Every structure is written in structure tokens, then in C-alpha cells.
Amino acid sequence: MSTRVEERRTTRGEPGSQRPVRPRPSVGSYLALLAVAGVLLVLFVRTTTSTLSLSFGLFSVPLTVSIAGVLVVAVLALGWRLRTGPLLVLGVMAVIATCWWAGSGIGFTLSPLWEDLHRARPVVDGFLNPNWGFIVRVWDQWVVTIAMAVVATTVGCLIGLLLALGASPVSSPTTWTSQLIKAANSVVRSIPDIGYGLLFVAMLGGTAGGAGPMAGVLALVMFNIGIVAKLTGETIDSVDLGPVEAAAASGASLAQRNRAAVVPQILPGFFSYTLYTFELNIRASVVLGIVGAGGVGQVITVQLSHFSYSNISAIMIALVAVVLAVDYLSLTIRRRLT
Amino acid sequence: MTSAPQSTARRFPEDALDRRPVRPARTGYTVGMIGFGILFIAAVAATGADFSRLVDFPRNFVDYTSLMTQGVLQVPDAQVRGYWAASLDAMLESVKIAWIGTVVGALFSLPMGFLAARTMTPLPIYAAVRFVLSFIRAVPEIIFAIAIMLPIFGLGPMAGALALGISSVGTLSKLISEAVESVDPGPLESARASGATRVQVVRWAVLPQVLPEIIAIWLYRFEVNIRASAILGVLGAGGVGSLLSTLFDARQWERIGITLVVIIVVTIVVDQISGWIRHRIIHGVPKGGSADDPGDDPGDDPGDEAGADPAAEPGPEADQPTEPTR
Questions:
Q1: B185-199 residue pLDDT tens
Q2: Are the Cβ atoms of B267 and A190 closer than 8 angstroms?
Q3: With CB atoms 3.0 to 4.6 Å apart as the test, which of B25, B90, B147, B167 could cross-link to B243 if both were Cys?
Q4: Least CB-CB distance to B260: which of A102, A195, A324?
Q5: Residue B188: CATH number of its domain
Q6: Fold exhibited by the domain A128-337
Q7: How many CB pairs under 8 A join A and B?
Q8: Do A102 and B42 touch (CB under 8 A)?
Q9: Predicted-assembly ipTM surpassing the 0.95 threshold
Q10: Which of A102, A198, A203 is opposite residue B100, by nearest beta carbon?
Q11: Is B260:A195 a contact under the CB 8 Å cutoff?
């Protein structure tokens, strides 16, 4: 702060030409940043020897280090030149370091893009020649997929609404329950849909055992609960407190208060989340089918193992059409709701 | 309302306006509910779900859950520590995949987002970019993985990362274009008035306003991508999804329990960190302040401060004044 005042220089000349000049950041902070940059460079050099998998065509190892190093130094220099605050520069450096960590961890390489592009030829050819008849041939699986989405959306969103009412301090009986339900909800949300799919398929038996759709519906329900409870919970947090207080003042119990003062306010938002979830479910049910939870995804798995990409392509195109149709439908419904 | 009728009752004869409002008809609502009920029952029937399975479910659930808990709670000898380490490695690989995917998506989404903003682009380009973006959004990421990335890159994390990257571009660009469109037009006008070119307008009037929001959007997508990378892992694109599907194939419930715990903990920790950074970047927006309608971005699980604050002014970053001076 003190530097900000001292360093502010005014341009000489007539008063109209004076422009505000950004204060220079403190030299000390930039020296510290320089030290951080040095540490990063050492880190780059040392970790790159351990991961030899990095290859950029002719230059295998030094190139990556130099790119990362030049980036770090450039950020530092640019920050000094543009008089950026040290925290921002540190943040950008952290981003570069994370990219390095992640990139070297997964063996980042783009060389297949120009070396092995031909390997995608048969697949892309298959995709460009969709086998249209196949869409109709598996229509029963489409029905299952959409039915699963409908059931899971309904059940999941209703449970999600109840949880959201419990999770928001506005509508929860005590702050204690609110905290508890919030924590439980973030646990539910942190397991990906495919995790639930695997879990329920293992517990119930998959398509082979005839329980695929059941497992799929349960997995989707868990997936929806997480999303809806979070989104609706946030809507409840920002609800107008007037009606709630009015209801409380007229002696309403907690349930009556929520029913009369909270739910009507969040209903439009809740419906739009529901429609949004429905869309997500159609997409997710494709993925769930891959782990054996019924629906059209299971057809994809079979076709994938036969390498019949033209069949997959037809299904994918139909899927995109269905998703776009649902998207459009929910957009119109949402417009009418709000 | 309460006192007015008494004072005016003498002067005007009572008419419909003085009566209490009639309760609106609810037939539409009732018909809708009945219709939905029929649809729901039909859907339940159409799934062909075998409900007799549910009879066994509680017992199975208790059995397997206790197996998983035993796995988590067992004394960590060398072997068990190895399980924990393997799960953590796989999960961290998922995080890496998600990060690279997000970075790739972010790099492409910035120009695409500007091209998809009506206020920034001439109509033909806008329409074309919008079309491409909505196509990308409609295609699930597994398709990019199956169709393009897995054949080119082979089974491995790199294929997953690029598939995530491509599919991120769709959502990210849409959110960014919305942020750009809802920008305060004042600075744009003054930049144009002082003779700025199109690029200069973007650099000096638009970017400073939207950058905090854009970074928040990127971070939010990172959280989404962590969950999505698990999906790609099941197809063999590395990460925790691959580990999970092998474990489930072998039905090693102890290790499944350990892996699930690792997934939950790492996901929550990353969510917390990124939520904290987002909160820090978007200054002045109180947490959960304006829950706008994030429902119309067809990514996964929006919400949070990221997509939800076009109404709120993106506050200036702490260390960077919004008015850049030279």
C-alpha cells in the first residue's frame, strides 16, 4: 500500500494529459518470484530425466524443459513489464507447474496426431458411413434408455428436492442437520456416475443377470440426487425470506412453512434443473450401458467389441438427435415456466 | 386494501373488483399430473426392470458394504498400503487427465467463446461457430474417445485427456460467450470512441471484465472433468476408471472400498481448493449469492459461483486494476 502512494508518478505537461500510472510492484516480491522460478526450473530439469517418455519428434527431452522454462521466465518478465501484482504471477506460475506435473504424469505428447493419424481412418470411415437401419433395429433399447431416464429423473429429483430442503439453512430444522446433509451430499456427488453404475451392477447383477436396467436406474438416481440437491439447495439459499417469516409468524410448522413459503419460490428453478438432469441422464445412460447397466450403451459395447463402427455411428447420430431434441424441448418448456 | 373498501363502499356499488380473487382453475395442473403419472408408470414398465431383484438388494448391499468397510478399516500392513497407494496413483492420474483436458479445452475455448458471442462477431461466423459448438456439446465425450482419440493415441491417458479437451470446448465456449455477451457495454463504447480496433476493444474493454469469470468457468470445468475422466477410464483411457473396472471385474470388494474412499476424498479436496480459488478470483460475489439459472448450459452439474453470476459484476482482481493503463 505504501509503495502505491510513493510510486505514483504524475506526467509533466498540461493537466489534461495526465494519465494514471499503475504503481510498480515491490522489488522484494519479484525477487521471491524469481526464486520460485528458479526452483521450478530445477524441478523441471530434475523430473524430466526421470520421465524419458516425453518425446517431441527430433528433440526428445530438452525441448520440453526449455518450453516450460521459457514460459516461466516470460511470465515473470511480462509481469514485471506490465506491473502486475506478484500474486497473479505466482498463480500463473502455479498453473504452469501443474501443467508440467500433469503433462509429464500422463506422458503428454501430440506426435501421434501427425504420425498415427492414419490409424483413425477405418474408424472415421465407419463413422462417416452410418448404418441407418441399425437405429431402428435396436429401437427397444432406445425405449429402455429413455424410460430409464424418465424413471431416474423423477425419483432422483424428488429425493434431491427433499435433500435440498434439508440441506439449506433456510428450510432445515437445525443448522446441525443442514451441515450433515450438505456433507453427505458432497460425498454422494463425488462418486462419478460410472462408479455408481459399476457398484449397482456388481450388487444386483448386470444385463447378463437380467438386472441391467434396475442397476442403471439406481445409478442414475444417485447421480441425479447429487446434482439436484446441490443446485436446488443453492436456489433455496437465495430464496426471499419474507414469505418464510410470514409463514413462521402465522404459526406454521417447519413442513408447512417449507410447503407454503419455500417450495413455490423454487419450483421454476427446480423444474428447469429437472429437465436439465433428464438431458444428462440420456447421455449418462449410454455410459452406464457400457458397464452393463442396460439401455443403448450396452448395444454400443457389443458393437465396439465387433469393431462395427458404422453401427456405432448410426447410434451416436441418433443419440445426438435425441439429445438435441430433448434440449430443444426443455428449452421451450423452460421458456414457458419462467 | 383493508381500509379502502370501507371508505369507498358508500360511493360505489359493490362489483366484482371488491370481491376476493377467485382461486384459479387447476384443471391444467391436474391433467398434467395425471399425464405424468401415466408416463412414469409406462416408463417403469418399459425399463423392464426386474423388481424381484430388489428383494435381494438390501442383503447384498449390507454384505458388500461391510466388505468394503472392512477393506477400508483393516490394519494397513505393507500390502494394504500398496492398495491405498495404487488407488491414490490412479486417482491422481485421473486428476492429471482432467487438468490436461481442461487446459486443452481452455486454450481453444477462449477464441471460440469470443467468436460465439453475438456482440463480438459478424453473424455468419457467429452462426457457424454456434453450430459447431452445439454439435460438440451434444456428442458425449466417450464418442470422441472411441471414434478419434483411442485409435490415434492408443489405450492410455493421453487419449482420455484429448477427448475431454475436445468435449470441454463446447461447454466452455458457450459459457464464455454468455459471459462476453453480458459484459458492461460502457467500456466497449469508450474504447470504440477513442478509435480502438476490434482486437484492441477485446483486449482493453472486454477481457478485463470477463477474465475473472472465465477463469472461474475453467476451474468449474476442471471439477466436472475429474468426474468425466473416470468414465473414459472404463474404456481403457487410464485413471481411476480403469482401476475401478478391473477391481469390479475381479470383485475385490476390499480394494473397491479403498478406491471409493480415495475418490471421494480427492474429489472433495480438489473441489474445495478450486472453490476457494474461484471465490478468491470473483471478488465481491458473496458465496451462493446469486443462484441464476445455470440449467441451460448442457455441461454437467453447473452451479456454484462459476456459471451463476452473469447478474453480478465481475469484481476486479485484487492485484489487477480493471482499468489497464499504459
A1: 899 899 999 998 888
A2: yes
A3: B90
A4: A195
A5: 1.10.3720.10
A6: MetI-like fold (1.10.3720)
A7: 240
A8: no
A9: no
A10: A102
A11: yes
Instruction: Measure the CA–CA gap between A87 and A83, rounded to whole angstroms.
Output: 12
For residue B267, what is the nearest residue in chain A, using CA coordinates? Answer: A190
Interhelix angle A139-167/A212-237, rounded to 10 degrees, is 40
- Write out pLDDT tens, residues B1-52: 444 455 555 566 777 777 777 777 788 888 988 998 988 888 888 877 666 7
C-alpha cell at A91: 498463480
Within 8 A of A148 by CB-CB distance, chain B residues are 43, 47
B266 domain residue, yes or no: yes
Q: Does A285 touch chain B (CB under 8 A)?
A: no
Domain segments of chain A as ranges: 21-113, 128-337
Per the structure, the count of domains in chain B is 1
Q: Is B292 on the interface with A (CB under 8 A)?
A: no
Q: Would B27 be classed as within a structural domain?
A: no
Cα within 13 Å of Cα(B9), Cβ side:
9
- Angstroms from B233 CA to nearest CA on chain A: 10
Cα–Cα distances in angstroms (integers) from residue A187 to residues A157, B141, B279, in the given order: 17, 24, 21
Residues present in chain B in total:
326
The distance of B14 to chain A (nearest Cα, Å) reads: 30
B128: containing domain: 60-307
